[in-house]
Amino acid sequence: MPESHPHRGPVGTAPPQASLLDYITAHSLDEDYAHVAQQRALRGDSERGRPGRGAMAALALFGAIVAVAGVQTARTAGVEAQSHDNLVAQINSGKDVLDSSRERLALLESELARARSDNLEINVAEGREQANERRLGTVAGGLAVRGPGLRVVVDDAVGADEDAEYVLDKDIRNIVNGLWASGAEAIAVNGQRLTPLSAIDFAGSHITVDYETLAAPYTVLAIGDPNRMPSRFVESTTGTAWLNAQQTFGLRFQMDVDESITIPGVSPARLALRVATGGEVEGAQ
Amino acid sequence: MIGALGLALGVVLGIFLSPDVPFWLEPYLPIAVVAALDAVFGALRAFLDGIFDDKVFVISFVSNVLIAALIVYLGDQLGVGGQLSTGVIVVLGIRIFSNVAAIRRHLFHA
Amino acid sequence: MPEQEVPPEPSGRDRLIRALKTPYSRSQLSAAVLLGVLGFAAVVQVQANDQDDQYVGASQQDLIQLINSQALAQERVEDQINTLENARDALLNDTLASQTALDLARSQVAALGILTGIRPAVGPGVRVTVDGPPLSVGTQQLLTGIQELRSAGAEAMQINESVRIVGNSAISDGPGDSVIIDGTQVSAPFVIDAIGDPTALDKAVFFPEGFAEDVEAADGRVTVRKLDRVEINTTRTPTPPQYAEPVPEG
Predict the structure, then answer these.
(1) Highest mean pLDDT among A38-47, A195-204, A225-234
(2) Could you give the CA distance from residue C236 to residue A284 in angstroms, rounded to a whole number?
(3) How many angstroms separate the Cα of A90 from the Cα of each of A98, A118, C18, C63, C64?
(4) Of A66, B17, C137, C182, which is most buried, counting CB atoms within 10 Å of its CB?
(5) More confident of the two residues A179 and C61
(6) C104 in Cβ contact with A269 (< 8 Å)
(7) Residue A190 has pLDDT above 90, yes or no
(8) Is A69 an interface residue toward B (CB < 8 Å)?
(9) Does the beta-carbon distance from A54 to B54 stay under 8 Å?
(10) Is A77 on the interface with B (CB under 8 A)?
(11) Nearest-CA neighbor of C144 among C97, C198, C200, C212?
(12) What is the mean pLDDT of residues C19-42?
């Protein structure tokens, strides 16, 4: 019984201007069935088509296809699911590793910043201490210095015979003390720089400075104000004492102004302290 | 009765043999199933309508499956495989729904 | 025939209102059950969508893509880590080296501070007391004494706890019997504190033809006390050199 529908024609027909959907829906059943049934009716064959062997075979085939497809899907689904899970696990663990690496990076950045500032601090402090060292070294004798000053050369009396006619350690001491009193900033005797630890002595028959044996003539170099040092030397106690001795015993003496005198420094080992240590510092440097 | 028997036999065979589907056949299997499904529902509706014919069923079954597979194959070669198979599935799906509706009307007088 | 009143067709709205008003009918019950199932399924689906595995829909291709881009990002981060580590280690090494240099410089400066008289000093040594009539102790004697103490290794000295003796200290005659050392006047009795090896210092003072003999020859008196701890607290501020300039290291 062909059905009627208010909005459609009987099954198998479509009104004009039907949409694609309407058409497909209307023609969903193969027209062949209707056609063959019609033919059968025309022939007078009253037997209604029943499912025969062909139908059975087709249905069997259908069942087989469905079953195979189902089994196939189940199989690959298992494998696919597993590989999917593996990949997901890989991604997740990769994410964890990446996160911790990023954390490490952030930590490193702050470590680097701190290392930079520490380094800067140390370098600044190092520079400062080395400047201090240079400054004090100049005064104490660790650094070579250059500047204007006096060149004093003394020698034994000509044809010296008795002790007093030789230049003694006492004489050198007087000259050196006189030069310090005149404002000398650095002094050397026969190339030996005088430091706070230097001793001018007499050993055997020779004058020694810091245990270095010296021989006449003795050159005493002093860096300082070349204009005022000579007069101040002459006025000083020991300068006067020397000049008296010089004149009395005929010791030879020469004092010249020199525009550029170079006085060597001593090695740091010569300035090393063995027993003295710092007391409480009054006021920071 | 024979129909149901045939179906059960086929399912059992499929499960027991569970052949390995060759790789080149894999993409056509789903569409073959849907095309076959359309033919089967069409046959069931024709049976309930009283116009079933054995020959027509077999022919429509085989031709549906072959044509669906052919269309998908062509589409893959032309580079529009995805779109064509979508179209085929849509049409088959609508037909299946429509036939099932008619069958439902027969069975439940709904 | 009387016309039968055809009740007007109820509108959709009327039907809805009527349905809402009647609470219990078979059609309503079955509709309710089906709607319930629909609601339940919808909620379950929404919740399932929300959950953890955000990769449910992802294809193998997508996942592999993700893994690749992750590997790239990992590589980049590890490169950066490497670079930063190298930079940090280089800085740490430099800092270490500089620290060593700094410590060295600091200790040098400390020693120089003592030598130049800027800092107080402490250590074993001697206390030399010199006294006598006017001519027995003066500039000459003190000069000799200081030189002898230096040659015996005196590292720091002070006189009468009022003036620090350093390298450029100069002694001159002062008014009366006093002497002037670096502008400070000091008079007898003279107390010289010296830090060094007490035995050596003691020996130097009493060396033949040395300081003590000179003083005692003029009726003076020299006593030496060896001490485990001599404190030298006088300091001086050296004037910065105006004529001497450090020679640049060539």
Answers:
(1) A225-234
(2) 14
(3) 12, 41, 59, 10, 10
(4) C137
(5) A179
(6) no
(7) yes
(8) yes
(9) yes
(10) no
(11) C212
(12) 75
Candidate from A33, A58, A63 with C-beta closest to B11: A63
How high is the pLDDT of residue C84?
94
Mean pLDDT of chain A: 86
| CA atoms of C107 and C112, how far apart (whole Å) | 9
| Touching subunits for chain C (3+ Cβ pairs under 8 A) | A
Going by their DSSP bridges, the two strands C179-181 and A212-214 should be labelled as unpaired
Structure tokens at A98: 């990446």
ipTM score assigned to the predicted complex:
0.73
Quote the pLDDT of residue A284. 43
A107 Cβ neighbours under 8 A, 6+ residues apart: none
The residue assigned the tokens 């450090």 is C246
B95 touches A at CB < 8 Å: yes
Are C215 and C141 in contact by the 8 Å Cβ rule? The answer is yes
Q: What angle do CA A70, A71, A76 make, to 5 degrees?
A: 100
A86: closest CA of chain B, how far (Å): 23
Q: What is the DSSP letter of C176?
A: T
Tens of pLDDT along C176-209? 889 999 999 999 899 999 999 999 999 999 988 8
Please determine, for residue B5, whether its predicted confidence score (pLDDT) is greater than 80: no
3 state DSSP class of B100: helix
Measured distance CA(A188)–CA(A261) in Å, rounded: 10
Chain C residue numbers touching A177 (CB-CB < 8 A):
139, 143, 170-171
Contact A28 B21 (CB under 8 A): no
Burial (CB count within 10 angstroms: exposed 0-12, middle 13-18, buried 19+), residue B21 = middle
Report CA-CA distances (Å) from A96 to A143, C75, C83, C152: 61, 14, 22, 73
Query: CB A273 to CB C106 under 8 A?
Result: no
Query: DSSP letters along chain A, please?
Result: ----BTTB-STT---TT--HHHHHHHT-S-HHHHHHHHHHHHHT--PPP---HHHHHHHHHHHHHHHHHHHHHHHHHHHHHHHHHHHHHHHHHHHHHHHHHHHHHHHHHHHHHHHHHHHHHHHHHHHHHHHHHHHHHHHHTSS-EEEEEEEEEEEPPTT--SGGGSPPHHHHHHHHHHHHHTT-SEEEETTEE--TT--EEEETTEEEETTEEE-SSEEEEEES-TTTHHHHHHHSHHHHHHHHHHHHHT-EEEEEEEEEEEEPPPPGGGG--SS-EE---SS--
Residue A228 pLDDT > 50:
yes
Interface touch C244/A146, C-beta < 8 Å? yes
For residue B40, the chain A residues in CB contact (below 8 A) are 59, 62
**C-alpha distances in Å from residue A136, one per residue of A181, B77, C101, C157, C169:** 20, 93, 17, 18, 16
Yes or no: say if A24 and B89 are a contact pair by the CB < 8 Å rule: no
Helix-then-strand count for chain C, H and E: 6, 9
Does B26 contact A at CB distance below 8 Å?
yes
Of B9, B56, B58, the CB nearest to A33: B56
Q: Which residue has the tokens 């300068």?
A: A239
